[in-house]
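Researcher: We're teaching a course module on how sequence relates to structure. For the next exercise, students receive a sequence and then see the predicted structure as tokens, so they can try to spot secondary structure elements on their own. Here is the exercise chain.
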Amino acid sequence: MVYAVDSDAAVTSRLRERIQRERLNNVQVITSTDGDPRLPGSINGAVILNAYHEMQQGAAVLDHLREALVPGGRLVLCEPVPDGAGETHSAQIEDHVIYPDTVVGDVERAGFVPLQRVDAFARNLGGTVFGLIVAERR
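Model: And here is the predicted structure for the students to work with:
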């Protein structure tokens, strides 16, 4: 089962329509709140792709993800990183980026153990560099 989560009801509505149209019976759409993805317990993995840097309540989301993941479950975050050092947190938010050190710190505070970190994992067509962090729930 795949859980597709978004806090925007319009997005989840369109996704439900697509899932029904394509007859995908292994995808469940969840409309979350800003601080709670509303995932059921006992999931094996979670992926946050190009979204964590936008979360106003990221710490709460990570806490809920930890609760939902089984021991040994993996959390993968792939986020845009700033071009250089020294950007303030507010500048990062404005630029839609986040430092990998910030993400690792948040993940550790939520009770995850970082397993892998690649600060320049991928570059999109617009030139934005994305970092990758893989962590495990213990």
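Model: If you want an answer key for the exercise: Helices lie at 9-21, 58-68, 89-95, 100-109. The beta strands are 2-6, 27-31, 43-49, 69-80, 112-123, 129-137.
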